[in-house]
Amino acid sequence: MSTNQYHAVIMNPADNVATALADIPAGATVEMEVQDLHFRVQLQAAIEFGHKFAVKRIGNGQNILKYGEIIGVAIADIEPGEHVHIHNLEGKRGRGDKLGQAK
Q1: For residue 102, is pLDDT > 70?
Q2: What is the distance between the alpha carbons of residues 33 and 5, in angstroms, rounded to a whole number?
Q3: What pLDDT score was predicted for residue 84?
Q4: What is the DSSP letter of 102?
Q5: Average pLDDT of 6-12?
Q6: Pairing mode, if any, of strands 52-54 and 17-20?
């Protein structure tokens, strides 16, 4: 599958996930840039519009960062190109007991 045919957005150089701007099939390679960083990720699974995927390895227990903000914590190791959703993320937003618990 060709590169750059598929679109995703990453907004902050600290982010470890990107968001699909359209449905992207499994196996597609997606390229993104944010400031001086370039990411090239081959998707391990199909990613639906609006869903997240890892752009770098996220270890179990590490914070998941989107738009420069902590949105949750990984509950399993997540490899680049993997779908990041409720099966491998525990949300922190809106949970006063989880906010501020950086790992």
Answers
A1: no
A2: 15
A3: 97
A4: -
A5: 94
A6: antiparallel
Please say if the pLDDT value at position 90 is more than 80: yes
Tell me if residue 43 falls in helix, strand or coil. Answer: coil
**Count of residues in the chain:** 103
Q: What is the pTM of this model?
A: 0.84
Please give the Cα distance from 88 to 58 (Å, whole number): 10
The Cα–Cα gap between 57 and 75 comes to 13
Average pLDDT of 23-30? 96
Per-residue DSSP letter, 29: E
Q: Distance from CA of residue 32 to its chain's centroid?
A: 12
What is the longest distance spanned by two Cα atoms in the chain? 44
CA separation for the pair 39, 61 (Å, rounded): 23
